[in-house]
Write a structure and sequence with these properties.
With 221 residues, the protein is of the alpha+beta class. The protein has helices at 76-86, 133-139, 144-151, 184-192, 209-219; strands at 6-13, 16-17, 26-27, 31-33, 38-40, 71-75, 99-102, 114-117, 121-128, 156-162, 164-166, 172-176. It has an 8-stranded mixed sheet. It is globular, with a radius of gyration of 16 Å.
Length: 221
Protein backbone atom coordinates (compact mmCIF):
# COMPACT_ATOMS: atom_id res chain seq x y z
CA UNK A 1 0.00 0.00 0.00
CA UNK A 2 1.25 3.45 -0.89
CA UNK A 3 1.38 5.30 2.42
CA UNK A 4 0.63 8.53 0.59
CA UNK A 5 -2.83 7.33 -0.52
CA UNK A 6 -5.43 9.69 0.88
CA UNK A 7 -8.82 11.29 0.48
CA UNK A 8 -8.13 14.61 -1.17
CA UNK A 9 -11.69 15.86 -0.72
CA UNK A 10 -15.11 14.69 0.44
CA UNK A 11 -17.82 15.96 -1.90
CA UNK A 12 -21.55 16.38 -1.26
CA UNK A 13 -24.20 17.05 -3.91
CA UNK A 14 -26.17 20.24 -4.29
CA UNK A 15 -29.58 19.47 -5.83
CA UNK A 16 -30.09 21.21 -9.13
CA UNK A 17 -32.55 20.89 -12.04
CA UNK A 18 -31.86 17.95 -14.35
CA UNK A 19 -32.74 18.88 -17.95
CA UNK A 20 -30.78 15.92 -19.31
CA UNK A 21 -32.93 12.99 -18.19
CA UNK A 22 -36.65 12.67 -18.77
CA UNK A 23 -38.66 11.99 -15.63
CA UNK A 24 -35.89 13.02 -13.23
CA UNK A 25 -36.52 16.57 -12.03
CA UNK A 26 -33.37 17.04 -9.98
CA UNK A 27 -29.83 15.71 -9.97
CA UNK A 28 -27.17 15.46 -7.28
CA UNK A 29 -24.25 15.28 -9.72
CA UNK A 30 -23.09 18.79 -8.72
CA UNK A 31 -20.88 17.71 -5.83
CA UNK A 32 -18.67 20.16 -3.95
CA UNK A 33 -15.93 19.63 -1.35
CA UNK A 34 -16.97 20.09 2.27
CA UNK A 35 -14.96 20.97 5.35
CA UNK A 36 -14.91 18.80 8.44
CA UNK A 37 -16.02 15.25 9.21
CA UNK A 38 -18.82 13.55 7.27
CA UNK A 39 -20.76 10.61 8.69
CA UNK A 40 -20.78 7.48 6.54
CA UNK A 41 -23.27 4.63 6.87
CA UNK A 42 -24.89 1.92 4.76
CA UNK A 43 -27.96 3.44 3.05
CA UNK A 44 -29.95 0.21 2.69
CA UNK A 45 -31.98 -0.90 -0.31
CA UNK A 46 -32.02 1.26 -3.45
CA UNK A 47 -35.06 3.26 -4.43
CA UNK A 48 -35.14 5.80 -1.61
CA UNK A 49 -32.44 8.20 -2.83
CA UNK A 50 -30.26 7.39 0.17
CA UNK A 51 -26.50 7.06 -0.24
CA UNK A 52 -23.61 6.56 2.13
CA UNK A 53 -22.59 10.12 3.01
CA UNK A 54 -24.71 12.23 5.33
CA UNK A 55 -26.10 15.24 3.50
CA UNK A 56 -25.86 13.65 0.07
CA UNK A 57 -28.55 11.91 -2.00
CA UNK A 58 -29.49 10.81 -5.51
CA UNK A 59 -32.64 11.67 -7.42
CA UNK A 60 -32.56 9.09 -10.20
CA UNK A 61 -33.54 6.42 -7.70
CA UNK A 62 -34.09 3.78 -10.38
CA UNK A 63 -30.42 3.71 -11.38
CA UNK A 64 -28.53 5.04 -8.36
CA UNK A 65 -28.27 4.69 -4.60
CA UNK A 66 -28.48 1.82 -2.16
CA UNK A 67 -25.80 -0.27 -0.47
CA UNK A 68 -23.89 -1.26 -3.63
CA UNK A 69 -23.57 2.38 -4.72
CA UNK A 70 -23.18 3.96 -1.30
CA UNK A 71 -20.04 5.94 -2.12
CA UNK A 72 -18.41 6.85 -5.44
CA UNK A 73 -14.65 7.40 -5.66
CA UNK A 74 -12.59 8.90 -8.47
CA UNK A 75 -8.84 9.49 -8.60
CA UNK A 76 -7.44 13.01 -8.86
CA UNK A 77 -4.80 11.65 -11.22
CA UNK A 78 -7.52 10.55 -13.66
CA UNK A 79 -9.33 13.86 -13.33
CA UNK A 80 -6.06 15.59 -14.23
CA UNK A 81 -5.81 13.47 -17.38
CA UNK A 82 -9.34 14.38 -18.40
CA UNK A 83 -8.64 18.01 -17.58
CA UNK A 84 -5.81 18.02 -20.10
CA UNK A 85 -7.95 16.32 -22.75
CA UNK A 86 -11.02 18.49 -22.24
CA UNK A 87 -9.03 21.70 -21.94
CA UNK A 88 -10.90 22.87 -18.86
CA UNK A 89 -10.46 22.85 -15.13
CA UNK A 90 -12.07 19.95 -13.31
CA UNK A 91 -12.32 20.62 -9.61
CA UNK A 92 -12.70 17.87 -7.05
CA UNK A 93 -16.21 16.47 -7.35
CA UNK A 94 -16.53 17.39 -11.04
CA UNK A 95 -17.42 13.82 -12.03
CA UNK A 96 -20.02 13.57 -9.28
CA UNK A 97 -17.67 11.62 -7.03
CA UNK A 98 -18.06 11.60 -3.26
CA UNK A 99 -14.37 10.93 -2.66
CA UNK A 100 -11.60 12.43 -4.73
CA UNK A 101 -8.54 10.32 -3.97
CA UNK A 102 -4.82 10.84 -4.39
CA UNK A 103 -2.17 8.14 -4.67
CA UNK A 104 -4.71 5.32 -5.07
CA UNK A 105 -5.26 3.23 -8.21
CA UNK A 106 -9.05 3.34 -8.13
CA UNK A 107 -9.62 1.70 -11.50
CA UNK A 108 -7.02 -0.97 -10.75
CA UNK A 109 -8.75 -1.86 -7.47
CA UNK A 110 -10.17 -5.37 -7.27
CA UNK A 111 -13.87 -5.97 -6.85
CA UNK A 112 -14.22 -6.85 -3.17
CA UNK A 113 -11.08 -4.95 -2.18
CA UNK A 114 -11.49 -3.14 1.13
CA UNK A 115 -10.19 0.29 2.09
CA UNK A 116 -9.84 1.66 5.59
CA UNK A 117 -10.27 5.41 5.50
CA UNK A 118 -9.22 7.28 8.61
CA UNK A 119 -9.63 5.51 11.96
CA UNK A 120 -13.24 4.35 11.55
CA UNK A 121 -14.54 3.71 8.07
CA UNK A 122 -14.09 0.56 5.96
CA UNK A 123 -15.46 0.57 2.40
CA UNK A 124 -15.57 -2.30 -0.10
CA UNK A 125 -15.21 -1.90 -3.87
CA UNK A 126 -18.45 -3.17 -5.42
CA UNK A 127 -18.62 -2.13 -9.08
CA UNK A 128 -17.72 0.41 -11.74
CA UNK A 129 -19.65 3.55 -12.58
CA UNK A 130 -21.52 3.41 -15.90
CA UNK A 131 -21.93 6.82 -17.61
CA UNK A 132 -25.38 8.22 -18.29
CA UNK A 133 -27.03 11.10 -20.09
CA UNK A 134 -26.97 13.26 -16.97
CA UNK A 135 -23.18 12.91 -16.80
CA UNK A 136 -22.82 13.90 -20.47
CA UNK A 137 -25.15 16.86 -20.07
CA UNK A 138 -23.40 18.01 -16.92
CA UNK A 139 -20.05 18.15 -18.72
CA UNK A 140 -21.64 19.73 -21.81
CA UNK A 141 -19.61 17.46 -24.05
CA UNK A 142 -21.16 15.78 -27.10
CA UNK A 143 -20.06 12.17 -27.39
CA UNK A 144 -18.90 12.09 -23.78
CA UNK A 145 -20.53 8.75 -22.95
CA UNK A 146 -18.68 7.12 -25.85
CA UNK A 147 -15.34 8.75 -24.96
CA UNK A 148 -15.63 7.92 -21.25
CA UNK A 149 -16.47 4.33 -22.13
CA UNK A 150 -13.53 4.00 -24.53
CA UNK A 151 -11.11 5.21 -21.86
CA UNK A 152 -12.33 2.63 -19.31
CA UNK A 153 -11.51 4.86 -16.34
CA UNK A 154 -14.91 4.66 -14.65
CA UNK A 155 -14.10 5.12 -10.99
CA UNK A 156 -15.46 2.83 -8.29
CA UNK A 157 -18.66 2.48 -6.33
CA UNK A 158 -18.17 1.25 -2.79
CA UNK A 159 -20.36 -0.27 -0.10
CA UNK A 160 -20.02 0.55 3.59
CA UNK A 161 -18.62 -2.29 5.71
CA UNK A 162 -17.80 -0.31 8.84
CA UNK A 163 -19.55 3.06 9.36
CA UNK A 164 -18.04 6.10 10.98
CA UNK A 165 -16.70 9.48 9.96
CA UNK A 166 -14.23 10.50 7.30
CA UNK A 167 -12.80 13.80 6.12
CA UNK A 168 -10.42 15.33 3.61
CA UNK A 169 -6.84 14.34 4.37
CA UNK A 170 -7.69 10.92 5.78
CA UNK A 171 -5.26 8.17 4.84
CA UNK A 172 -6.55 5.30 2.70
CA UNK A 173 -5.19 1.85 3.50
CA UNK A 174 -6.00 -1.23 1.42
CA UNK A 175 -6.71 -3.81 4.14
CA UNK A 176 -7.97 -6.68 1.96
CA UNK A 177 -7.41 -7.79 -1.62
CA UNK A 178 -9.27 -10.81 -3.03
CA UNK A 179 -7.39 -13.56 -4.87
CA UNK A 180 -9.12 -13.03 -8.25
CA UNK A 181 -8.00 -10.54 -10.93
CA UNK A 182 -11.28 -8.73 -11.62
CA UNK A 183 -10.50 -5.04 -11.38
CA UNK A 184 -12.91 -2.14 -11.61
CA UNK A 185 -11.64 -1.36 -15.11
CA UNK A 186 -11.92 -4.99 -16.24
CA UNK A 187 -15.49 -5.30 -14.99
CA UNK A 188 -16.40 -2.07 -16.79
CA UNK A 189 -14.88 -3.20 -20.07
CA UNK A 190 -16.68 -6.53 -19.78
CA UNK A 191 -20.14 -4.99 -19.56
CA UNK A 192 -19.46 -2.30 -22.17
CA UNK A 193 -16.91 -2.91 -24.93
CA UNK A 194 -15.35 -6.35 -24.33
CA UNK A 195 -18.10 -8.94 -23.72
CA UNK A 196 -15.58 -11.75 -24.09
CA UNK A 197 -14.45 -10.81 -20.56
CA UNK A 198 -17.88 -11.43 -19.04
CA UNK A 199 -17.29 -15.03 -17.85
CA UNK A 200 -14.28 -13.90 -15.83
CA UNK A 201 -16.43 -11.57 -13.73
CA UNK A 202 -18.09 -14.47 -11.91
CA UNK A 203 -14.85 -14.97 -9.98
CA UNK A 204 -15.65 -11.73 -8.13
CA UNK A 205 -18.07 -12.74 -5.37
CA UNK A 206 -18.48 -9.13 -4.23
CA UNK A 207 -20.04 -7.94 -7.49
CA UNK A 208 -23.64 -6.79 -7.02
CA UNK A 209 -26.14 -9.58 -7.64
CA UNK A 210 -27.78 -7.72 -10.52
CA UNK A 211 -24.45 -7.62 -12.40
CA UNK A 212 -23.80 -11.30 -11.74
CA UNK A 213 -27.31 -12.08 -13.01
CA UNK A 214 -26.59 -10.02 -16.13
CA UNK A 215 -23.38 -11.97 -16.73
CA UNK A 216 -25.15 -15.31 -16.30
CA UNK A 217 -27.86 -14.33 -18.77
CA UNK A 218 -25.35 -13.20 -21.36
CA UNK A 219 -23.01 -16.16 -21.12
CA UNK A 220 -25.61 -18.79 -20.32
CA UNK A 221 -24.00 -19.71 -17.00
Amino acid sequence: MDVSAQVLSVNIGRPRPNPWKRGVGLTGIDKRPVVGPVAVSAPGVPGTGAVGLAGDRVFDVKNHGGDDQAVYAYAREDLDGWQDELGRELGNGSFGENLTTLGLDVNGALIGERWRIGPDVVLEVSCARVPCGTFQGWLERDGWIRRFTEAALPGAYLRVIEPGELRAGDAVEVVHRPSHDVTVARSFRAVTTEPELLPSLLAAEALPEEIKDLVRRRVGA
